[in-house]
Amino acid sequence: MARLTSLAEAISENVHDGDTVAMEGFTHLIPYAAGHEVIRQGKKDLFLIRMTPDILYDQLIGVGAARGMKFSWGGNPGVGSLHRFRDAVENQWPRPLEIEEHSHAAMANAYEAGAANLPFAMLRGYIGADLPKVNPNIKQVTCPFTGEVLAAVPAIRPDVTIIHALRADRKGNVLLEGIVGVQKEAVLGAKRSIVTVEEIVDELDPPSPNSVVLPSWAVTAVVEVPGGAFPSYAQGYYARSNAFYIAWDEIARDRDSFQAWIEENVMKAGPEDFARHAKKAA
Amino acid sequence: MSDFTPTEMMTIAAARALTNDDVCFVGIGAPSAACNVARLTHAPDITLIYESGTVGTKPDVLPLSIGDGELCDTALFTVSVPEMFRYWLQGGRITTGFLGGAQIDRFANLNTTVVGPYDHPKVRLPGGGGAPEIASNCGQIFITMALSKRGFVDKLNFITSMGHGEGGNHRERLGMTTKGPTRVITDLCILEPDPVTKELTVVSIHQGVTRAQIIENCGWPIKFANAVIDTPVPTETELTTLRDINARTKKAHQGNKEAA
């Protein structure tokens, strides 16, 4: 059964130095508050996994929390570069970053394989592309029935997966709606999982019998953090702050302004500071 | 006819490439603008799909990311990302993929990964995202990007997604049954692969653009088709539609700048 706890406890109990950590959320429901708690607790040598490392992973890389990253698209969507990620890869600042790069299709398949308790995923992918030349974790398998050669990548099995969801009930059952990304697969493929939610309610009351629900017994810790996905968004609660995504380009471009921003908005802040973003959408 | 910018011409020419029957996988940025202009003009029933899982979406403002709430709010349905890539893309349900890129070569291979060596890049770009499998699994690919020497290069440092590879029947030799890039729409002209060599060739030139300008802005000695036509100028409806959606988008993306 999931433990309903505080964010500080959830992170300190479940995220350890050196862990392989997936924080997922495909544009929607990115677990910013939890990621900031990881930074505040000074976790280090993490191997980060995420399909679309955006601002949150730019922050984790920029503070030097990561030794490596597995990903498929590392940019600020619609804006441009992730400057902290680029600084790490191009100039090894603040430390070198080992990268394992895939395509979205391969990452999505690899998460699914992790959830399905399989050792690897296969796809009709990477045809004519150069990534297999630079990533030894992209291999080939031959179909035993047709002889077709397909791409193979290892299943993703994080030590801990962290996601943000819409709400949970008091038993710790969790509901996601809208763009659900790979969060279900990332949680089910992980050894441990932390879910922050906009609110904890008496009755989960899923809108449909086919809603994405993660049962309490498949989740390790649940934490109520209203606004915890800001500046990404929570469907039905608040919209994506595209203005902040645009503003991040300037903040992160310079090492000093980045560090000042982290000091002010992460180190001197707490999960409760996200609540002001949580006003229900009209 | 009112005046129009080269970028407006590019977006409108790109929109015209799409039809009402298309099921289109939409890349962010210029492709997204073109696909929505098509939907709001001559192709009202086009199915637009974004890789975040939104199918049949009809955004009122252009999304900044591929997963803005606007896309989900206006979609016919929304699926998980593994389902999107496995059932819908790999399943062969998408007629057209619409991509942008940082760099392209004469065979319409794209690079969005690195400038310089992969291990010690001069510029680290975002990477491929969905592009490698969009390029191989969609029925055909349209590409839109501004013509410049930096973008249209003689040799790519890295092939993020394959177009026509080394040209000729390279796709077939690798077992692909899809057409690959069939049109590249720029701000100066439209390119299509030669039917045999698959080298990109100028087939249509936008109003006011000279051949010399096109040659000057391309990183390889670019070829012109035997019959090059003039790209029809934007209609009043096309221009108004594009400007309206751009204005709505600009307004929507301002606003809450508060720090996290």
UniProtKB/TrEMBL annotation, chain A:
GO terms for molecular function: glutaconate CoA-transferase activity. It is an enzyme of class 2 (transferase). InterPro entries: CoA_trans_fam_I, NagB/RpiA_transferase-like. SMART domains: CoA_trans (SM00882). Its EC number is 2.8.3.12. Keywords: Transferase. It comes from the Bacteria. This is Glutaconate CoA-transferase subunit A. It comes from Rhizobium herbae.
UniProtKB/TrEMBL annotation, chain B:
Keywords: Transferase. The keyword NAD does not apply. Its EC number is 2.8.3.12. The keyword Transferase applies. It is an enzyme of class 2 (transferase). One of its GO terms (molecular function) is glutaconate CoA-transferase activity. InterPro entries: CoA_trans_fam_I, NagB/RpiA_transferase-like. It comes from the Bacteria. SUPFAM superfamilies: NagB/RpiA/CoA transferase-like. Pfam families: CoA_trans. This is Glutaconate CoA-transferase subunit B.
